[in-house]
Amino acid sequence: MNPKSNRARLLAAAAAGVVLAGQMAFAGETGETREAWRLFVADHTRPVVRVLDFDDGKELARYDIKGYATLTASASGQTVFATQSDSDIVHVIGTGIALSDHGEHRDLDVSDPALLPVTFAGKRPFHVVPHDDHLILFYDRGGKAEIIDEAALLDGTAKVREIDTTAPHHGVAVTMGRFVLVSVPDTSAETKPDTLPPRIGLRVIDGSGKQVGDIAKCTDLHGEATSARLVAVGCKEGVLVARPGKEGPELKLLPYPETLPKGYVGTLLGGKALQFFLGNYGEDKVVLIDPDSDEPYRLVELPTRRVDFILDPADVRNAYILTEDGDLHVLDVVKGEIVRKAKVTEPYSKDGHWRDPRPRLAVADGQIAITDPRHALVRIVDSGTLKESRTIPVDGQPFSIVAVGGSGASH
């Protein structure tokens, strides 16, 4: 498939997505339609997570935890995982927002947020991967990953399947049906004290924990995402894509073409209504990846280094990229072009420690929420005009942020 026909296919899929959204909104009128959005914000240094009402900025709850946290929302949006890597613990917050699909419409139930009674402990929990009705928690120094059932969490219990990750390493695990994709460490590598071995590949294991097929080479594996039925991970050699097969996931490397400058993908996002992936490519470029195209990579250059980026779950053509000069860029994923930009914060340099306080992005109700830790604010920017509509003051240094919500019928 050539790039032009590929773009035509993406345009048709985008149009279909808009039509479906309209049909769902119309069908949802079987009951009183309501909308609810909440922001979950973790402080950069303090062990605290705040829940904010998106409409008025009111603080609905504040949870004191053990350490500073990175936040990850589940696929359903009913839970948020607060991963405290340096404190070896993960807390789970019930968002109080539940969307249920009824075919012709969705129902929305809203209740109070709550810090759930179940916690997860282990040596350096890091990557949390949401997928369908569960989340996969990877412990870098624990030599294990856990597949966690979300429904049990919401009932106040833990239902966990443990996965052996061979040896401690900074890796990831992703489910595909009854199979699990797990990163592979180089156990033969000589490492300095208190350092972890490098990643060299990806393996597939079945429900009994048995490896299926050979290990697929993937040097310095980092970054994963799911789009439709595909899973992609970043490698030094290219992007490794897993597809469902008759006897389990089939792994195929998409090597970087010679036309690309030197670099590699280390962070990936997966399209929801459209099948594609967006990855970083070095610090000042991104790539759009279509695994079904004869030319799967489209490079997009940025004026300065990237601070954060995110896909819009509702406006499926849009991705938002914040660069260190304080500009927010809108990337049209179908055209493969930056279509507009505006300054939304003062500059935040990428020099310094990787975890220095810098803005992070979330999307809620057609608007972009941007943490500004230097000014103790969450800035709300209209995704159409890129103009700031308001700010939400947040005590401390607001850092990691996720948005949860939507609209539905309330019976």
Description:
The chain is mainly beta. Among the domains are: 127 residues, TolB, C-terminal domain (Neuraminidase, 6 Propeller); 76 residues, Thrombin, subunit H (Beta Barrel), CATH 2.40.10. 7% of the residues lie in helices and 50% in strands. It contains two helices and 34 strands. A four-stranded antiparallel β-sheet has the order 3-2-1-34, with no helix packed on it. The chain has a four-stranded antiparallel β-sheet with strand order 4-5-6-9. Strands 10-11-12-13 form a four-stranded antiparallel β-sheet. About 5% of the residues have low confidence.
Précis, in short:
Residues 1-27 form the signal peptide. With 411 residues, the chain is mostly beta strands. It has 2 helices and 34 strands.
For this entry, give a set of tags.
single chain; 411 residues; mainly beta; Neuraminidase; Thrombin, subunit H; four-stranded antiparallel sheet; 2 helices; signal; AztD-like; Quino_amine_DH_bsu
